[in-house]
Amino acid sequence: MLAAPLLVLYFLSRGVRDRRYFGSFGERLGGEPPSYRPTTPGGIWLHAVSVGEVISAIRLIEELRGRNPAVPVFVSVTTLAGRALADEKLRGLADAVFYAPIDYGFAVRRVLRRLRPAVVAILETEIWPTLYAGVKRVGCGLLVVNGRISDRAFPSYRRMRFFFQSALQMPDAILTQTDRDRTRYIELGAPGDRVETLGNLKYDAKPPTTGAPEIVRHLLARCAPERIWIAASTMPGADAGDVNEDEVVIDAFRQLAARWPRLLLILAPRKPERFQESAERLARAGIPHVRRSDDRVASEFHLPGVLLLDSIGELAGLFPLADVVFMGGTLARRGGHNILEPAACAKPVVVGPHMENFAAIAEEFRAHRAMVEIAAPDELARAVGALLEDPELCREIGSRAADLAGQRRGAAGRIAERILTLQDWTIPEWNRPGPSKPLLWLLSRVWLVVSRWKRTRDIARASSLATPVVSVGGIAMGGSGKTPLVSRLAQRLLQRGYQAAVLTRGYRRRSIETSVVVEAGSDVPAQVTGDEPQILVRAGAAHVGIGPDRCSTGRLVEQRLHPDVFLLDDGFQHARLRRDLDIVAIDALNPFAGGEVFPLGGLREPPDSLARADAFIITRALPGRIYRGIRHKLAALNPDAPVFLALVEPRGWIDQRSNRPTGDPTGPAIAFCGLGNPAAFWQSLQARGIEPVFRWSFEDHHHYTVRELRALAAQAKDLGVKVLLTTEKDIMNFPEDAMDMLPSVDLLWMTIEMRIENEESVIALIEQKITEKKPRS
Q1: Fewer Cβ atoms within 10 Å of its own Cβ: the N or the C terminal residue of the chain?
Q2: pLDDT tens column, 44-74
Q3: What does the CA dihedral 486, 487, 492, 496 come to, rounded to 10 degrees?
């Protein structure tokens, strides 16, 4: 009964200071700069526990990047050694590396809210029930990749089948290394139709291309060893009666040194906490040795001797130097370690009897005579000596090992393809309601009844305009890119010879006039128009009519300016004005807002209301994605409406002080915004390669106060930042003397452009309505 609270207290005591285990991303907003790019929704979270899994993840991430360079990839680890290696090997490849959260709901939710991934891929055997459930609850895809269950672990898992069965029902797919692993997952309760053998990622490990560390090069140049033997990933015994592999290796080295006086042993203990213990053991044995961490070779060092590799992530780069490799964890009862890295370098590998963790690999190598097996510790010296004595035998065994490793490659590409396919079918549900919210459910039913009554009333009272009306709206609360979409359509219509007029409510404008009409190209203050209408005014492509009664405002625009078409901004629920075409914007980052109406979810109307749309545009799409899942759901709701994609592309920056274009900031920057979906701005920043050291989100249409501006200035001073970054919409909500509050920083706002795929077809739909209702002369 006390286990759970004690576990929480233990992790709190270890993790609070660096936020380890609770979702730290190497980034403290408002604190130290991030070590990786800001997170962007819709990415892929890979959970790789150990050093070996991190190495496997490298090839997988490279394959993901090769297929879609824009896809965000995040990697979590649970060990110190795994984190150190990931920080080194994945910099520039992964968007973030962080410690995985403990398997408690609050920690899992925090990470999921921060990352907002489309797919979570668990490497190998990790079964975390709370993480699995949290991932599925928010609509993410869930995969187990490179799945394996070792001979050693399977009996324990089978005894706990009642516990693991429900968790193994959750993944969308389990991609195993071998058919044996597939059978075992099914025996533990995984659905057979979701378990598939795709091969072992470890076969895809590339031979290292980086050279040896400088100390190794210096040692080789000075001592010129005749033979090099690597004892890799050595382990202590599993219990008091088991062997310590360091002792076995040292004893074998003494025997071999008599035959090869210029023998160099590279001893690489598996765990960092054993480095000092191994050094002390070498000293007690009186064996000359040098530590990698010394960064120099002592003048008294001589061969035969030992290089103690007390570092993380450098072992693979040394395998090409070896004549023979002994793989640790195989004499001690530890289940073995991966032999594929030295095999890929065409090196003969000596292993003990314990390869339970890599049984399938051992079986293949045994069948092809691509490794040397020994049954007991006292056979190590004889096996290594026989190989050192016979270079031709070394070449034969190494060649067979390299050929075998090469024939089994390709798993990384197959797994990457499955991950990206699942990513494209995934429909995020970040506003999905919790399991027990009866009050919110009741309020949402009230909202639904009232909104349906209001719509019925408005339809009965609806008015028409002589000019065709094209609505651009949505069903979710918050931003979905409707205003940039309206601006883009107005520009394209103008290029085709049609003058559009935008009808908009002008939310939070400060004008007392019932309706405001702005001719295209005119200059009117933001206080009169509101923030989003001001963007349309500045664009200058369309007339703008602003007022809560869009029908009367539209008639005023018709009388004064005679437009060819009206674009009704955010008009899907505005039933008081009849429209000729309904275009609905669906936000790719949160398309159906939890599937429930406010306040239980984030919808203004239930999803079935999309049946009355004439066309859909999926906004804020990421490059390289088709969004099959969203398309499939839209087709089920409305099979006749075509679906288009729209990408928001950041174009550049305007310096607010000079009102002139400027380049990307070169130093540290603070980013802030008041948008319905702040993730859109963070995504645009990432597209420009910008890493803000601090981010601040405000409510949609936020009007900034003097106090807030001073707080931004103080935060910039504390962090040594000279640049603030925001959006054009936010600039509209700044006070007139805003720059006086920011005397020591530059304020830049981003210019964006929306690009609609198959744009001509969208314009053709609008043009058809213009022609039908108001033929051109």
Answers
A1: C
A2: 999 987 777 888 888 899 999 889 888 889 9
A3: 90
Where do we find the tokens 């058919």?
A: 179
> Residue written as tokens 């213990």?
277
**Residue carrying the six token digits 């990206």:** 420
User: First CA to last CA across the chain, in angstroms?
Assistant: 83
Mean pLDDT of all residues belonging to the chain: 86
- Helix, coil or strand: residue 423: helix
Cα-to-chain-centroid distance, residue 526: 37
Q: Each residue of 150-176: b (16+ CB within 10 Å) or e?
A: beeebeebeeeeeebeebbebbbbbbb
Pick the closest to residue 500 from 539, 442, 459, 447 (CA basis).
Answer: 539
Q: How far apart are CA 403 and CA 318, in angstroms?
A: 20
Average pLDDT for residues 555-570, to the nearest whole number?
A: 94
508 pLDDT band, cuts 50/70/90, is low
The answer for residues whose C-beta is within 8 angstroms of residue 157's C-beta and 6 or more apart is 149, 164, 184, 188
Comparing C-alpha atoms, which of 51, 135, 46, 56 is closest to residue 95?
46
3-state secondary structure of 628: helix
Cα separation, 572 vs 734, whole angstroms? 29
Question: ∠240-241-244 over CA atoms, to 5°?
Answer: 75
Put residue 650 in one of left, alpha, beta given phi > 0 → left and psi -120 to 50 → alpha.
Answer: beta
- Which residue, 388, 390, 391, 397, is CA-closest to 252? 388
d(C-alpha 177, C-alpha 144), whole Å: 11
Strands 263-269 and 305-308: parallel
Return the number of other C-beta atoms located less than 10 Å from residue 32's C-beta.
11
The CA–CA distances, whole Å, from 500 to 114, 467, 514, 532 equal 40, 10, 21, 17
Model confidence at 36: pLDDT above 90: no
Phi, psi of 620 (to 5 degrees): 55, 35
Residue with tokens 């660096």: 18
Q: How many other CB atoms sit within 10 Å of the CB of residue 655?
A: 15
Supply the DSSP string of 129-174, one letter for each residue: HHHHHHHHHTT-EEEEEEE---TTTHHHHHHTHHHHHHHHTS-SEE
Active-site residue set:
53
Give the span between the Cα atoms of 301 and 307, in whole angstroms.
10
What integer pLDDT is reported at residue 514 of this predicted model? 84
Reference 363, options 399, 332, 336; nearest CA is 336
Read out DSSP for 470-492?
A: EEEE-SBSS--SHHHHHHHHHHH
Q: Where are the beta strands (DSSP E) in 627-777?
A: 643-655, 660-662, 669-673, 694-697, 723-727, 746-756
Mean pLDDT score, 162-187: 92
